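# step 3/5: fold
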Amino acid sequence: MATASISGTYPYTRDQRFFVRMAVGMSAFIVFAFGQWALRGFVDAKSVPIWVHLHAVAMLSWLGLLIAQTILVGAGNIPLHRKLGWLGLALVLTIAGLGMFTGRLAIEMHRVPPFFTNAHFLALTHVEALVFPALVGAGIALRRRTQWHRRLMLGATVVVMEPAFGRLVPAPLLGPVLTPIVTLALQLGVVAIIARHDLRQTGAIHPATRLTALVLVLVTTGINALEVFPPFVSLAQGIAAGG
């Protein structure tokens, strides 16, 4: 504690194991959430369009890469970590594109969950798909500032944990108003784990951790605002009508 500055600058090796555990834990949770959803019979894998499977494969690839990258850093293999980082950027852009495409096609094919309006689902799939690569891009831009870099990468992953939490909360019971609030609270709970770690390391919450929390709040607020914004509602209705 005495050797760490209030800005969170300290040797990354000191707590790299925490970030490995976070990457593994978050990834395992996401896989579990989607897995139990399928095992409970809420999705028929054979009837799911191919692009949904492609999006799932891309997301699994991101989770695998996230774990591999944190392990590589812990092992001191920085050159390979950097090479894979650029591959990760291409993967993230692919995920974003597939996410928006999948969201739009779900509306066209009337596959939107009944507890969501078309406008909400369109906003949900597009806002998160844009914020995810934005945070990853910021993390890459700040790759020489390790404490920022690794927190922004985790923060980007927390953004895309929303669908996983959505498959665990009782959305039909909570309704369209409470579901986003409860999901946001769960996402902020993950950020709180990082914040607690920051406090233990430096006595202050790292700015990147604060930024992640702010982004999550803005994402939920933006989605809820777009859902009732007349031009956006008309756009979603037009997509549902086939054009």
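# step 4/5: annotate
The mean pLDDT is 90.
# step 5/5: archive (pending)
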